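Entry 12.
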Amino acid sequence: MALCKLGMNNINGVMYPVYLVSGNAVRDGEAPPAGSKRPAKVTVVAQTKEDGETVFIAINGWRDRAEDIMAVRKGDSILCIGPMKTNEYNGKTYVSVDAEFICRSSIDGGAVVTGAYTNMPSVTQVDFADLSSEDDDDLPF
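Predicted 3D structure (tokens):
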């Protein structure tokens, strides 16, 4: 379970921190109410603080990500990237991430990757054949 800040993202003129969130779903993904403009949602246990407090994060899925969120089942491992928002209500802080990229791995096996995170740096393909040595018997360790 992890939470890692990747950078900042400008959404409608407001800067939000973008995080990579990894955790396990605490319940099945929820569909938005019919006719509403609310997102699909699933809650994950993302981190346990040093003081023993557990952090729950609501992962919101808009448009294409809504179907992905609704497919999540309790216990699935979730990896998500998106802008993080916090809200205060009745003295408690609530944390949510609007999923731009989501990957889930179910208990039954298999992983499903959806979304394309366009703000990631470009990646160069590595040819592992270039890394091999002619003399494999002479390893440095």
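Annotation: Confidence is low (pLDDT under 50) at residues 117-133. The longest helix spans residues 64-70.
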